[in-house]
Amino acid sequence: MDELTELESLPVERLIEMIREKTGAGVNLSFPGKVLARQLGRRVRPRNQRTVKALSAGDEHGRSRNLVIEGDNLQALASLYRERGQIDMILTDPPYNTGGDFRYNDKWDQDPNDPDMGEFVGSDDPAKHTKWMKFMYPRLQMMRAMLKPSGVLAICIDSRELFHLGQMLDELFGEDNRLAIINWQKMTSPKNHDKGVSTATEYVLVYSKNSSLARTGRLTHSEATASSYKNRDNDPRGAWTSTDATLMGGPTHPGQVYGIQNPFSGKVHYPQVGRCWRNEREKMRSAAEKWGVDYEDRDLDDGLRPALVIKGVVDPLSPKVSKDPAVVAAREAALEVREGPWPQFYWNNSRERKTGEGELRYKTYLSDVAVGVVPTTFWADDDFETVDLGSASWEHEESATSDAGVKELNAVVGRGHGFETVKPLRLITKIIQLWCPNDGVVLDPFAGSGTTGHAVLMLNREAGTTRRFILIEQGRPDNGDSYARTLTADRMRRVVDGAWASKRKRPPLGSGFTFKSLEKKVDAKTLLMMERDEMIDTVIASHSSTGSRRNAVLIPLGDNEEPYTYLVARNASNEGIYLVWSGAGSNTDLTEEAYEEITEEAEAAGLADVYHVYSRRNLIVTDDVVWYQIPDRILSDFGLDVRTESFTEEG
To answer: What is the pLDDT of residue 396?
Structure first.
């Protein structure tokens, strides 16, 4: 189908919308098939999510918090309608278009629900870039829709599709919402088979849904950095490190460039060329006088502002100033102060190790920077500078390497997994720390080996955070390997339980996850033909209390020794979710008898007397029942228009 035919098939409203976009400001990217690609997200059908208990892990609470979903990620995103607009961070590693790493089915241009997986796109395919963009564009649209207003997308890529991905993200998110382009060092030495310039780096493009609402956090200190803080003077404020008492900006802050006389030696010290004292004059005077010495202003004919000179000194520039009675008295006072905790601005020892006769220094306390290191444009060390990401470079010490990621995966699941490149935990944890709140939700639509989920659980254990994850992976079922099961879920189970493949004993990270597999398309006919266990999975996956989607996560209650007839789950308010459904053609109505048994089950389970009931019809009237009609309410909660059963982006 050519572009003209595609345009002719569009309704007038969509054509007007496209004209406005083309004539408006910002980036507009064109590629063959884009018109249809941008419609796919609206036409893909959500799927029923089938719980596979044997592949889930953790306790009841842990399973209710995290998800591993097996299936096509476009269909999975459509099926996660309850989470739409609720995700704090999307962190993902899509196919890089290296040849044979993704499939494309031309039928998807017309029907994104076509079950055929399509053919692998080879590196010699002349349309490989177009197919990759047609594959990615609707997924990026859906990812943006999943983010909350303050949400952030961080997406990994290499040089093959860097520019195409950047253009699509600029168009979908807006250039003003680009937070960073991170250039991380994936290897420490070039490969012999590389031709020309060896590729040693990859990229992470970071975009916000709304840059005015997004927040860039800080990173925890490395052990080496924290250990550099000492408390050699028993300061009650704790460990500190010695930093410069000056800052850059001498030419622009001439009022902060002058001499200060050292009370130990009598020598006048100045900021280095181009620098100035880090505080304004009166604060510097107060800091100097904390050494038990009074200062006065005096012009030293040095072309600078008046110096801070020890009061009573005859000639501060004299070679014999150390013998001046005022300096002798100042030295005695300063030595007495030095016996206790030193003031924050302190006089360092000289190179000859003479007490206090060196330059003026500043104590930076670990407690003041305990929230972590501020991200900077270069990540070679833990300097504390202002936030300025833009285009950032992370050396391998900061982000680890791809080889480190493979070794980490080997340690968890053993060798033979087939993954040659794996993102290292250090890279992923840094990104999560920077852009996901401590109690946020992280979504990875291309979960692969599960590094994102591993990083979330590791941070929760180490830092006491409560982040949740949703991982989506399909694998390659055509090869008999749905590694959503054999790798993604296996890795997550091992880190939850501590059952690593390596001989070294590892502590379990705890928590857990529920494994779900995408199955039937959700429509009215499919819903009405479901068996009870299928309907339970569908209700739990779709349930949304009005105005409270973020708190709609349900805890299933189906593992009792004596199964409930109606009770299937409870919500965060300790209210029960009840299903009156025994399968097509059987008991599906809320009757007086069913209501009485529901109240008895609620009392037995210790639940509140508010009853959320799903049924085909409601034959009673009572104020304590919140009723959800099957199939209409389920279709609505999946984002389907009940009248047309087509997916909508509203909500």
So the answer is: 46
